Amino acid sequence: MRIPVSELSMQKRPFRILSLSGGGVRGIFQAVFLRCIGETLNVPLWKLFDLIAGTSTGSIIGMGIALGIDTNRIEEFYKTHSYVIFDKRFMANVRRGPKYDQKHLSKYLKQVFSNKKLADTKTHVLVTASCLDQFQHRVFSTIPTQGTADLNLSAVDVVLCSSAAPTYFSPVKPAGQERTYIDGGLWANSPSSLAIAWAHRYLKFPFESIRLLSVGTGEFPNGMTQAQLESLRPYSPDAIRAIFEIMFSCQASFADHHAQEILGSHNFLRINASLDQVVSLDEVEKALTKLPAYAEEQAQRNLETIKNMFLLSDMSDSHSSNESVDQMAVTEDQLVSRHLIAATGLTGFYPSRDHYMLRGKSASSIDKYVATARNSVVMVSINLMTGMQFDDLCTILRRKLEDTNGKFQVVISLLNPYRDDLMSTLGPSLGKESKYLSDSIKETIGNLLEFQKSLSSSSQERFSVHLHNSIPFGSAIMIDHKDAHGRIQIETKPYKAALRRSFAFEVAPTGIDGLYATIATGYEELLRDGKLVSEKDLKETSKPKNRKQTKPKK
């Protein structure tokens, strides 16, 4: 149940916020992402957050979660009804009035939310809108600021107000309200900064005790060129769409940047899909085709971080859905321990390969882990001797190299097999003869160079094989390690222990003590001290050494 405002500030735990941006049908990204997180953690999502803030399509999803509606049903709402909500056959007069008839959106929302009011939410909500007849912002919330909160308002009316994008849908005047409202995205497309301000101002939470998960609906890093913008006819539908996308995206970008500046990277997590082309808020086919896969990838990538930041206790299915948050709260000692671990940037720990494989949905093989990379992957001392593993990895790398606008980089570094001292040192630790180890690495190098030759010329330049001349403290996979969303997974094992007893951990650049930077720098130095290998090197070193022939004595 929703904790009364008077008791919230007395809770000896962080205040957890979910912020959901606007974006029309692109809300399918949020719906799929949150469904994946909820299913994997086996926890009703409303239990993870003390406040859910939403704008436009984000308000629909956020309200559904706050009311305890199953995330599968929310996802199905988008997949089933978006084609009708944004169907051109039901368009209003495009020369005068909105582009789409709002009655379809209203009808389907009533089927999901029924007659529920804000008072029926299981956790606190905050929904943004814009007041048309005053040109002012409006915040609907269960948290009172001056007098009473908006508890008696219809959930459907509130999200319709927030979703009434100008030129797309008609303004909304809720029953019993004097004002008329339009899309909250006009001033708060990402409500993250607003939610922080309310938690701090009205609930008296200090900034350092607030944690926030912000989920977008897709970002467009390529933007558009000046020529593209100037080619649009003034007041044309394409021009209007472009202006809205620029305005909504820039506001969301600033709000999330500001939120991260306030909370610090260790208490803020932004989830979004980086799209190579603009998907407008009413482009149903594009959104439903592309975004679910991005959402599932992001859920797998960020699961451990979300678990560490927002799952305060063992909220397994042994807890009934009507348990109070107080009953599920961990002790202060447990909370501090988990929070301090998360603050270092540690996002995952796997005590053995057996344990890792038993984790089910939250675990992934090397190829699946690499598939989550956006810009680059660096692999150091990874075992690629298993044929199936090698083939699956190459399939992923080929797709990444050939299909990412010519920017994706791959670096694979192996221990130098031509250094006998390294082979004789590492071999016993792995339980391998030094010659067997050397031959296996040489074979892997040959396979990698053959794979490189099979790529296009552009991709070949962005794929490199290196040899390092020092034994690292563990094998590593570095995903987008120079970016803010990067992470590094390291695996190592005790001397002579079986490989299945090796253990691994993952770190992200969200820590406050420089652990991530220290590890990343160490592996970069390891690569710099090594050498780039080519097919010529492989052939030269594989030639038998010339021995001086002596003539037999007569």
Description:
- By secondary structure, the protein is α/β, with parallel strands linked by helices.
- The protein has 2 domains: 15-311, 3-Layer(aba) Sandwich (Cytosolic phospholipase A2 catalytic domain); 345-542, 2-Layer Sandwich (Endonuclease, Chain A).
- The protein is built from 21 helices and 15 strands.
- The protein has helices at residues 5-8, 28-41, 57-66, 71-85, 103-113, 155-163, 185-188, 192-201, 226-230, 237-263, 284-310, 325-328, 332-343, 353-357, 366-370, 387-402, 420-430, 434-453, 457-461, 515-528, 535-542; strands at residues 15-20, 51-54, 124-131, 136-141, 181-183, 210-215, 268-271, 346-350, 376-380, 409-415, 463-468, 475-479, 487-492, 503-507, 531-532.
- The protein has an 8-stranded mixed β-sheet with strand order 8-14-13-12-9-10-11-15, sandwiched between helices. Strands 1, 2, 3, 4, 5, 6 and 7 form a 7-stranded mixed β-sheet that branches.
- Residues 314-337, 360-364 and 543-554 have low confidence and may be disordered.
Strand element count? 15
Q: How many helices does DSSP assign? A: 21
| Unreliable runs | 314-337, 360-364, 543-554
- Name the helicity range: 40-55%
Q: State the major sheet.
A: 8 strands, mixed
Classify the beta-strand content into a percent band.
5-15%
Physical arrangement of strands within the biggest beta sheet: 8-14-13-12-9-10-11-15
Kindly report the oligomeric state of this protein. single chain
Rg over CA atoms, rounded to whole Å, is 27 Å
CATH architecture of the largest domain: 3-Layer(aba) Sandwich
Structural class: alpha/beta
Q: In the residues, how many domains can be counted?
A: 2
Q: What is the terminal separation in angstroms?
A: 103 Å
CATH homology-level superfamily of the largest domain? Cytosolic phospholipase A2 catalytic domain
What is the 3D form? Answer: elongated
